[in-house]
From TrEMBL:
Coiled coil (UniProt feature): 444-478
Domain Signal transduction histidine kinase internal region: 533-611
Signal peptide span: 1-20
Transmembrane segments: 498-518
Region of interest: Disordered: 341-362
Protein name (record): Sensor histidine kinase
């Protein structure tokens, strides 16, 4: 027989009634229901519905919800508008919650206004639902829906709805790794309405942004909160563990992970049990406590087998990474081969690296696993076993258009063939590597362009949201001012004070707006400079590669295999160093000089009959104390050889000098006694005259950007060496950082 149960909870002006239908089913079920006003059945959206086992959802704009639960679980309903209520599930029937007094007491004169307010609230929740729907697929649409949800808040909204919008916006930015923006919006949401969930998200954002002390301070305040459901409490201790681990406090991190693990095991929250076992293993591994680490890794791996193949592969790869760190390459290879077999059973054959809702391009794919297996074989000097896995990785990466793995695998395959002494295949692989680098360079340019456009769109949308927030505050201020003016007819002195306060507030708001605009403009300028600098560096590398490969082509054309092999070996050393430094704004001057000497040596091996050279470093110069942008000097030396010394009839001379100017400045001089700039320009063809040197143009732009960012650290001047316009002298003055 069906039974109806009522749960009454006294509020300030309302009473909550829960109505549930009782059946005789047991086991896992999907519970459906709604939350509405008892008298008028008005839907109540945004009510947080959770179970004591960690499941979580919210009511939609119609007040309805769906949640997975088991017979015997406790349903928990939470909202700022009602008192928290708990209800034990005893069947699979629907659960309807009725709030007595919700909307009661509204006079007929105000009923239309109340109806309009409820309509706005429903629209607000629909827009936030849409924002969450597009969060993973379209950042622009997602943020636009949040902005739309905030537009009417200037006149009809309340702080609870504002906090919901700001928290949703923070979650969107958190998913897309825009941690600074996420933190700002979570803080604004907390200013509007205090919320345990928002504080937890803020702490997680601080940790991801590397601000571990702020994360610990924010999260510690939640430990004594009694209203948190078990799943949230597990997340709290996990986040505290992550923050302490980020600060290097491994013992404290282990303690928090252990507390979270106890709660997760008690409430059978399987995903978190796996996560915390894995993180405990990582913590012990960082202390070289291998026995404890392997025990927890084994637990996470065994538990993941019961959840889903994707999760098992994630944990399997984490264990393999641990074996790699400990140089246990045999165990690593065996573990990754198991992952590879499991991965082949999936469709599509890839698994996200992270199980959290944070986006990331790093996924577990067969080409990545094959590449890591090959690397493990190479570490054991088993080159023949490594080659098939590298070839598989290249083929699969090409199929999936994964240029990064294709580049790394092709380069490593070339190195394996070179170490085996098969220089023909090494050269073929290296030529494939150069082609992939060229494709990757084109893609990087496109990514930089998209990133710049993406940053502009984010800035514009965030400015729009900031404007909406300011409009809301101004609208509220106008409303307060109107009410105050009506009352000030009776109290003249109070009116004067309100006017003064309003003026001060307006000035403060204008000052704050001006400051925020100045800071935003400054940050945007810095971001544009960094993007431009990175773009120029990525242009320099292919430019240098293709110019230098002309030397290899020359030896091949002459059928001088020994010289080509020797040149290719030395050139690979130079290229490895160049690529390693390609992401840096500055490198030690000593390293730059080593690269230059190797470059000049390579060019001299080709034009030995055209010039000799000398590199002189004054003993008074501490080259280790100075930093210089990588590849800054090479184009000047290249010009000296190719446009000055190469066309000289008799043998020329190239001299590179490093001299002290002051304690904080040195001068690098590049001199050649070649034909000079004027004669070189006359020798150019008409087509060459139309084209400007890409290398020199890039160097000029890099110096301008670096000087703008670091306050004129580099100064370059070029002049004729002799009065008859022969020879060239390049002087570069460099300040200490």
């Amino acid at each position: 027989m069906m039974k109806r149960a009522y749960i009454f909870i006294c509020l300030l002006m309302t009473t909550l009634t829960a109505v549930s239908q009782v059946g005789q089913t047991s086991g896992g079920v999907e519970i459906k229901g709604s939350v509405k006003g008892k008298e008028n059945y008005v839907p109540i959206s945004g009510v947080e519905v959770s179970t004591d086992k960690g499941e979580y959802t919210k009511t939609n704009s119609l007040g309805e919800f769906k949640i997975r639960a088991s017979i015997g679980d406790i349903l928990i309903f939470e909202s700022p508008e009602i008192e928290t209520v708990r209800h034990r599930i005893i069947s699979g029937e629907d659960v309807d919650v009725l709030v007595e007094g919700y909307g009661k007491g509204i006079s007929k004169k105000r009923e239309s206004s109340a109806s309009k307010t409820r309509s706005v609230a429903m629209d607000h929740q629909r827009l936030l639902d849409s924002a969450n729907f597009y969060k993973k697929t379209s950042l622009e649409k997602s943020i636009d829906f949040v902005a739309q949800s905030m537009e009417p808040l200037g006149t009809s909204g309340n702080k609870r709805e504002l906090a919901q919008s700001l928290r949703t916006l923070g979650e969107i930015y958190l998913y897309h790794k825009q941690y600074d923006l996420a933190i700002d919006n979570f803080k604004d949401a907390l200013s509007a309405t205090e919320s345990n969930r928002t504080k937890l998200l803020l702490g997680q954002a601080y940790t991801l942004n590397g601000q571990n002390d702020l994360a610990i301070r924010t999260l510690t305040s939640l430990i004594e909160e009694k209203s948190m459901v078990p799943y949230q409490r597990v997340e709290l201790f996990e986040a505290l563990g992550d923050a302490n681990k980020g600060n290097g406090k491994i013992k404290e991190a282990q303690g928090y992970y252990k507390q979270g693990l106890v709660i997760a095991e008690k409430n059978q929250i399987s995903p978190k049990i796996i996560d915390l076992n894995s993180k405990m293993a990582d913590a012990f591994a960082s202390e070289d406590r291998e026995v404890e680490a392997e025990g927890y890794y084994r637990n996470s791996l065994d538990l993941s087998k019961k959840v889903a193949p994707e999760r098992m592969i994630q944990e399997s790869e984490r264990v393999a990474d641990y074996y790699n760190q400990k140089s246990r390459y045999g165990d690593e290879i065996q573990q990754r081969k198991k992952s590879l077999n499991e991965l082949k059973q999936l469709s599509p054959p890839s698994v996200p690296r992270e199980s959290k809702g944070v986006s990331g391009s790093d996924t577990i794919t067969s080409q990545r696993i094959n590449y890591k297996i090959a690397s493990a074989y190479i570490a054991q000097d088993k080159l023949d076993e490594a080659i098939p896995y590298l070839e598989k990785s290249i083929v699969e990466a090409d199929k999936d258009d994964d240029l990064v793995i294709q580049k790394d695998a092709t380069r490593k395959l070339s190195e394996v063939y070179r170490n085996k002494g098969d220089f023909t295949k090494a050269l073929e692989s290296y030529q494939d590597y150069v082609a992939v680098v060229d494709s990757l360079y084109v893609r990087k340019e496109q990514e930089i362009s998209r990133a710049a456009r993406f940053n502009r769109e984010i800035a514009n949308t965030q400015n729009r949201i900031s404007s909406l927030e300011q409009e809301r505050e101004l609208a509220q201020s106008k409303y307060s001012l109107a009410v105050t003016e009506q009352q000030l007819y009776e109290e003249t002195s109070k009116r004067q004070k309100w006017i003064i306060y309003s003026l001060i507030f307006g000035i403060a708001m204008m000052s704050l707006t001006a400051f925020l605009y100045y800071r935003s403009d400054k940050q945007q300028k810095l971001a544009n400079n960094l993007l431009a600098l990175k773009s120029l560096r990525t242009q320099m590398n292919p430019h240098f590669i293709f110019n230098a490969l002309n030397s290899v082509n020359n030896y091949i054309a002459k059928s001088d295999e020994r010289s080509a092999n020797r040149f290719l070996s030395e050139f690979s050393v130079l290229m490895r160093s160049v690529l390693e430094n390609s992401e840096e704004d500055f490198i030690p001057l000593a390293k730059e000089l080593e690269l230059l000497e190797l470059y000049v040596k390579l060019e001299h091996s080709r034009f030995a009959d055209k010039f000799d050279y000398e590199v002189v470093v004054d003993p008074a110069v501490d080259v280790e104390a100075f930093q210089i942008p990588p590849m800054l000097l090479q184009p000047y030396i290249e010009n000296a050889i190719w446009h000055g010394l190469r066309y000289k009839e008799e043998k020329g001379f190239l001299k590179i000098k490093v001299l002290p100017v002051t304690n904080d400045m040195l001068e690098i001089i590049i001199e050649d006694n070649g034909i000079g700039r004027k004669k070189s320009a006359e020798l150019k063809t008409s087509n060459q005259k139309k084209q400007k040197s890409k290398g020199m143009g890039n160097i000029k732009k890099r110096i301008e950007i670096l000087n703008d960012m670091y306050k004129n650290r580099v100064d370059v001047s070029i002049s004729d060496l002799n009065g008859d316009h022969t020879g060239t002298r390049v002087s570069l003055k460099l300040k200490k950082q």
